[in-house]
């Protein structure tokens, strides 16, 4: 079977130096290659030379299941498949097939480090049928084991198959037809039960498209793809039609589905839809604004509170101005350049291009894209669209952070927690945090110690309700703070702080006047221990190929020092062959000979080191080109930590090559604002090490439990929809994710799951030819947000009724409304949040947020069971704070009121 025909980026055209994958390089002539009807993507496109079509040897041969080897010393390619051996010297017109000489039309040659050969040689070498269509400039290869696939829709399926997990779309042209649209998707897990896939392009306004509709689409209105690969990337034909039979065209919103068609005895399965796509002008990254940020800078309750900043496009030569769109965050996921073109001019703000990055304050008449005035209590996301001098919309930025105008101060950010002593109480805990940027609006801070097992339920409401023995107050000083806690401090549950208990630390900013408190995110887990202490691990290991000596002098390693170097003696940088990296552990590292690692002294700073000419890997072999390595750092202890060394995780894979690798970025980090409980709370940052030979950077979000298998090869093959593209820069990059950001697998970023960020330095294919992956950032987790319960709940008997009053939470952050309920006292003791969430809307009274805080029940009303309120029955009142589903997602139930009965009239 052919392997990975459509994702042949894994097996791209031959790198003469034997290095890794490189980015795409556009050919002068747009020639395509198909294998059994499926388009093959290679990073060196076919070209014409001396009236002969030249194709990339490695990309084609490996897609046809041949093994390809390159020998640098003789500049010779050797390929083997099914007992056939082909030997081809670079630059020669003569090759051998099983020892027999054959003459090439034109000699094989190298283009940007890729070997290309005449098309006819593929047929002669591997016996496959090769065709050339000059009108469409398409090379078609039909394999000898390819069989025609007859689509079948079984009438009595007996076995289910799985749909493809996701579908990604990308606009790759400007012809205004199906040829502009590239679709990619992974194979279904049910490989054996599938006969083909059908690509179905559906108008986005169709709300009734389902499996039954998909199975009845005429053959002329879909694109059929034979089953036979693990990943597919398909560019549609110019004559491709949507499911209504109309030609695919510009200015129409589409969604794309993939129908997995079962073989005999199997049913069909329909994928979920892609995101909305519309054909139009393709903007280059250099023409798009970046780093869009929204800030709350005042308290007018309208657009004057809203400040927008962004980094202007690096190439403004075709631009006239920018348009700033304020979009309700609930609609931000579907906001596109197509939607932006439909927005009335009264509902966006025009910013002229200038020599510096713009900062603009909106006005009291500024409206969002729906035409509503900007106001407090609504979450907004900002987009910036680049406009040409002719008025065309040519590109939209990524969305800003989500911003809700209001009167909640910014939360502090914990940067470090440490075990600094051996008292076995709060004096062992030292906390460092970054002050709130709005200290003029706060009176001070409170520090809480929470057992890790209880941290999932610790929120602002819980923190606000704790007794003073369960927190420590810290004054504001205008600077970031480092504080050591006290001996008398209890944890949030009232228990003494002790050794061998995992804790997480929180810091709360105390709002002054009308400003509400705000709570930091949780710290990393801290477990106090007495006696021998362990050193900390280094982090952020990045590896780079920086020179062309062909030995250790080419290998540069950067890492972040241990958070506390007080227990560190030195660092040992160890180079491990990648094939052995999975088995390399602390015990193995401790036993490595001193001649087989690089020892680095601590100096209080993060380190960048380069090996020497005679440097060896941990096995004692000289470091050299062409071998896959990963780097570990062993932190050795001193004093109480002597003998308790710590081993880092592995770096990304690096293969040294001649003038090949880009430089990995440094200091990849994330911060979490915790303001909306969406991906837009997450801001990532990194520092480019050396932008020589780099075309762009790609930022990936990876689940922490999947990070062990995420490497440069994986990153090279991630679909474009599943990473964030950053234009080449030599300065620090800081940018927020968007609510629609997906992880590298194309899955939505979800709450309560740990993620990390990686950055790929993408080679330009000229100065550098190998991409390099950074080390991982710190973990981030989007926490589920719970609204606050009401307080001071009272139920009072009146003539003919029961009056319920309560105090609403300060700021009502994340609350949509309140549900006031009467519960018969006999069943009130066990009435829980789960019970309240199940009460029918008919059986409670709704109180609008920000309007009323009382309700009177009469005999015409009902209790939670739907029974009429009557005299002689005792009731207790409860109030459910209902989350708005955007800022907060979890409801909160008040405590019960006292009993009350209707007074008979």
From TrEMBL:
Give every Copper amine oxidase-like N-terminal domain span.
Answer: 35-141
What does UniProt give as the signal peptide span? 1-27
Please name the InterPro entries in this protein's record.
Answer: Cu_amine_oxidase-like_N (IPR012854), Mao_N_sf (IPR036582)
Annotated keywords: Signal
Q: Which Pfam family is one of those matched by this entry?
A: Cu_amine_oxidN1
List the residue ranges of the region (Disordered): 139-162
Which protein is depicted? Answer: Copper amine oxidase N-terminal domain-containing protein
